[in-house]
Design a protein that fits this description.
CATH topology of the largest domain: Rossmann fold
Number of domains: 2
Strand content: 15-25%
Bound molecules: S-adenosylmethionine
Distance between the termini: 33 Å
CATH class of the largest domain: Alpha Beta
Oligomer: single chain
Structural class: alpha/beta
Length: 410
Amino acid sequence: MTSAEVVSNLPPLQPDEAKHGALVLQAVRDAIATHQGWLAFDDYLRLVLYAPGLGYYSAGSAKIGSGGDFVTAPELSGLFGRCVARQCAQVLQHTGGDVLELGAGTGALAASVLTTLHELGLLPDHYYILEVSADLRQRQQQRLALLPAAQRTRVQWLDALPAAPIHGVILANEVADALPFKRFLIASDAVLERGVSVSAQGVLVDADRPADAPLRAQVAQITESLAPPWPSSSAAPSGSPALWPWPSGYQSELCPMLQPWIAALGAALGRGAALLIDYGLSRREYYHPQRSSGTLRCHFRQHAHERPLLYPGLQDISAWVDFTRAAEAALHATLQVAGYCTQAAFLLATGIEADLAASNTTLQRARLASEARQLLLPEAMGETFKVMALTRGFDTALRGFAYQDLRSSL
Ligand SMILES: C[S@@+](CC[C@H](N)C(=O)[O-])C[C@H]1O[C@@H](n2cnc3c(N)ncnc32)[C@H](O)[C@@H]1O
């Protein structure tokens, strides 16, 4: 689909959105000019997602929920938070201490985790939230102010990861996929980096240039770790054995920030577990030759598409998580990879069926069953989302991974 065709399928911009979009577009053009006409894609994302007062996550749009651009699992159903809470409870029973949630969105997960932990008599000492978006922090404060005092008073917002490690649980649902990432392409004899440039008409356009040494090294690391036997469908581009197994024209993404982000989480965790929940795959699946256009997705008012240069500052842009990269980063940070499974397996192992059975009325049962289908079905969120547990000083088997162990696929 061309950009014009994608736009024709999207809802029209409201006047205030168009005005804000024009400001962001000008900021991108200025940044491109400052960078000699070419902006790396991760720098583009830093600007259009996070620049104070301008970026998608920093400028007050509705974003998450049915009135926004996309719906996340905790927004879709309280069932998700109840299951996550039961996993937190198992850890807190051993470690005591705190929960730290990164990127808490509207506060939906925090609300259901706190409510369930209260029911279980296992409230953490603190429920810390680290949120980079000022307006989402405000939405979280409004939502969590409605909780009973015993839960509400546990919540504290942080401006940075805690200086002293916490004991307990770190939660990050759909945060790793929101970290700025790079785009790369395979040409017949080179690795290219896809960035952003401006056309003579002032329109933002994809612009590719030879990858610099650090990006080439990261791509080489991927190909080296995808050791033979290659999938049978792969075809080495002639004359470029070093780029094997991808065909010429293949494009994908990689997230250099994932390793330092996990290292920082590792430094923030004393005894306990970090749960990363996100769209994602093992490296072998992520970089399969047939996944030749990568995993980048944009969301604008519940429409998904693949045109990240449209509507800068007005749409979400994300890429799936390479969970093998996450696991390597965790080992580097002296964390253990204690579990990796699909979201469906995790929710089943943490008691989603018992929650469904406990519903009081036929109407409630029907509503919860429909929400559970969205969370569990493979073609919805059940298999595209994975859960990874990273632990330190915690050897008990985590209940969320009792039904499935996909660690050998990493
Ligand atoms: C896709 S939203 C998910 C929100 C929420 N976790 C949910 O599931 O509804 C991504 C969230 O991550 C936050 N975020 C992005 N980068 C972050 C970082 N480095 N540290 C903490 N939060 C971050 C965003 O502001 C936003 O709240």
